[in-house]
Amino acid sequence: MEVALIKSDQKIEVELGCRKLTTAQVVVGIAHQLNTPIGNCLVGGSYISDETNTMLNNFNNKKISEKSLQGYLNNMVNISNSICTSLCSASDLIKKLKLLSLNEHLEDKKKFNIKELILSNVITKRLTSEHPLIDFKLTVPINLTVVSYSNAFCLTLTHLIENSITHAFEDTNKGLIEITISTTEQSLLMKYQDNGKGVEQQILDKMFTPFYTSKMAKKQGLGLSILHTLIHHKLHGELNYSSELGKGLTINIIIPLSELGVTSEYHLNVVNYDF
Hints:
By secondary structure, this protein is of the alpha+beta class. The chain has helices at 2-60, 66-98, 114-121, 125-130, 150-168, 201-204, 223-234; strands at 110-113, 134-141, 145-148, 175-183, 187-194, 238-243, 249-256, 270-274. The chain has 2 domains: 2-98, Helix Hairpins (Orthogonal Bundle), CATH 1.10.287; 107-274, 2-Layer Sandwich (Heat Shock Protein 90).
């Protein structure tokens, strides 16, 4: 009994250590991401202050020419646009950070057909037209209706697609994304695959950590960490993943049928869609 308690305490210590490390990485990531736009705003604001004081002094001394006034106004427009761009960047990051909280995913469960949801909100005409070199394949039961969080479903697949477009196909802008929906006696399975450049194991183990960066993932982001929040804490599911360099990425999402209002006796007719 004493040995078991010691092992339990050691497990808790390891978990707490991992959480502290992840929290530290998030804090560093937030600081790094916000540093650039805030720094740009400070520089821009300081420049506006200095130039305006100079212009005001010239105005008081009646030394303003039409050329100097025009130059000042042009500079103010350019600096103001730069500040607005930086503020929008910071605002977008804050919105994404809020998505890490379950409080930002408040919605009521509702009944919906998974095939219709994906075709209407995920693999849309706009998506396929914006990425004509990427092929999309969807295999899904025609009549699978569930009672769950439709927005969480959409966000999950949207984040996966965005991740593939941003990282897996960044060198070629060409590839294949496959989404396969199926069921077992107890679970709904969502299998997501791309045939992109793949992910190193070292990166694969950390890709759900907010702001994790690598040579292969030049952009820092929150997409997959938001995905982790949605699947584990909103949909009460699990996920596993695998990848090899040059062989793409596979992510399997498993959600208990009991969470979806679906019984194991549910009969499904599967249909394939190619885009």
